[in-house]
Amino acid sequence: MTAGASRGLAPEDQVAERYAGPPPTLRPSPDLLPEAAPREAAVAEEPEPVRATPFLLAMRDASWVWWRPVAGLLLIAFLLGIALVLTRIADVLTGTGADLDPVPLTWRGLMVTGLFLAVALPAVLLAWPVAHGVGPGRGLSEAGRFRRPLLWRFSLLALATAGTGIGLGVLGAVVLADRDVPGPVDDLPWVLLAGLLTVPLRAAAEEVLLRGYLSQAVAGWIGRPRAGAVVAAVVAALLGALLHGTDDVPAFLGRVALGLAASAVVAVTGGLEAAVALHAVVAVAVLLLGAGLGEDAVPGLVPGGPGSAYALVGGLGLALFVALAARTRRGVRAAG
């Protein structure tokens, strides 16, 4: 009925004509109902966890080209060459005797040599953006940064293991092999001050270069994680030992052992923190013993001499450090 028609009815009839809503509808047939989706399909699959790129393969990213590590190494070599020329000029002008030979222990030699090797640190940090177009964090750890809390943790561990091994080696050479103990070096306070300021920095620079950029370049060229890690460890250890000379076979083997241990902890921790801590503790321990007892008292500082084989006792401390670092692998990865 229309609105005009309803106005002509009596009031009681208008009440009966009020709108009562739509008529009830029937339930559709079960055959016409849509099928329910399986419960398993309704639940979205959980994405698989993304695995971090191994530290040594950090260069094998989307921008990987074989010549990029070559360009980076050439840049590093160029900057180190400039530093070497300046070092030689300083040696001629001042007579510091600055070279990679650990003796004689003089504060001038420690300062100039330490600053020369420390150039490797900014050189590597510059090589990453210049040659690879990314920040240098990939050359420090899997986390893209230097994890400082791990540095202190591994420093204490290295002191308790490798540092103790070096001390026992010197003790065995002096007490059991009657190695000479000439006494403290000249200008002992200045030698200790210069050494403590430059030796840890030099150790960090060597690790960033050898166990960092160089090892990553070698592993990147090989492209396979395990094979690349092994070859990079051998190359870096031999090169690092050769830089310090081959006059003393036990000392040379000890440096190779240090390099292999540093590469091992880099592989298990995914960064350079443990390697830097190990190298710095070993270098400082040798410095303190050589400056306090005399250079001739420490096997490895001078070629030959009784008890030279005791330099290899420190290898046991290195092996213990690597074993304990491997046990903390899970915690280290989580900290990154």
Automatic annotation (TrEMBL):
Keywords: Membrane, Transmembrane, Transmembrane helix. One of its GO terms (molecular function) is endopeptidase activity. The keyword Transmembrane helix applies. Pfam families: Rce1-like. The keyword Hydrolase does not apply. GO terms for biological process: CAAX-box protein maturation. Residues 1-45 are annotated as: Disordered. Residues 190-282 form the CAAX prenyl protease 2/Lysostaphin resistance protein A-like domain. The chain crosses the membrane at residues 65-90, 110-130, 150-176, 188-205, 226-243, 249-268, 275-293, 308-326. This is CAAX prenyl protease 2/Lysostaphin resistance protein A-like domain-containing protein. It comes from Blastococcus aggregatus.
